[in-house]
């Protein structure tokens, strides 16, 4: 059985090490926070916060305390606040160890597309371009194929890029791939997924 | 030196004109200068260029200035919360310059610090790099981004003393300090003006030198995405 959303998030959480400062994107990456266990991880919210806590209890919502998805959240004993220039200074400056992000397409050379589809409504890149250009390690978590069954792991991206050669590791419902010289290397297969299935669902070059 | 004005309208007196450039603080609807936006709507000034991370929502925040068609151009990183924005943009009534969020913040900070341009890796190899000078540093490519120098800054803080020394609250700080720095004149609205000496000088987030005009007022502080957990889950 391929991994479901929660299993993908749990696998992504294994990438995180004690003491890391991490930025989680919207969607499946948000679920990663549920699986960090006892590891001492500090979550960054790029609108100006380190040490992001869970959603507030009903009645405790504070309009001055939101995450980058504009959702109400809470602070922790370790929390610090800062302005947007400082926030992206720590991102651009490589102080954030890792970003875990969703994607529309990833190419075998690490190109990432996750911000716009030409001809459709364009909402903007937000902080995604800054994150992928600046953080230590970019981990993509996404379904391996789109709803039509086409691979999202490609030789070249067809959509406008968020960053060029920025992705380090791809975690999908089928398993884990690393971006290496010459293409993609299979790191792990989801339980019950064969290497042949992984290869058949991957349009990008797989190297040994 | 008196920086305190009686209302947002008075604080903007003599500063507004058609075709002007405004830098605005706020992220989503968090920490936005609600009172100053309302006063700009009332003024009727038009063809404004606004540098702001977002453009409010339909009917609130900067979205009010869209409804009245006073904005000519937005410089933003994300505008997905606003149907009227999309309508005006797709019909060609509104210009839009997308900036990566950190690039926008740094462009404001740079402008306020007298830095006309800086190199960044953000956007290299993407449409954001189109037409921009690029340069190699230590074997890596960077693109040149320009500092923002606005006619006025409109920002919101939590408290300020009468000299403009300001503190912000939680994530409502966001773009407010960099936006405050990059305008020739900065107008700040706060929830409370307190006597000088009542804020700890070591805890000032934005020194009063950046703040030229100050008003106090009540804020709606609308929540965009109310997300909660049930108490039983605790």
UniProtKB/TrEMBL annotation, chain A:
Pfam families: CoA_trans. InterPro entries: 3-oxoacid_CoA-transf_B, CoA_trans_fam_I, NagB/RpiA_transferase-like. Keywords: Transferase. GO terms for molecular function: CoA-transferase activity. The keyword DNA damage does not apply. NCBIfam families: pcaJ_scoB_fam (TIGR02428). Belongs to the 3-oxoacid CoA-transferase subunit B family. PANTHER family: KETOACID-COENZYME A TRANSFERASE, SUCCINYL-COA:3-KETOACID COENZYME A TRANSFERASE SUBUNIT B-RELATED. This is Succinyl-CoA--3-ketoacid-CoA transferase.
UniProtKB/TrEMBL annotation, chain B:
The keyword Plastid does not apply. This is Succinyl-CoA--3-ketoacid-CoA transferase. One of its GO terms (molecular function) is CoA-transferase activity. Keywords: Transferase. It comes from the Bacteria. It comes from Actibacterium pelagium.
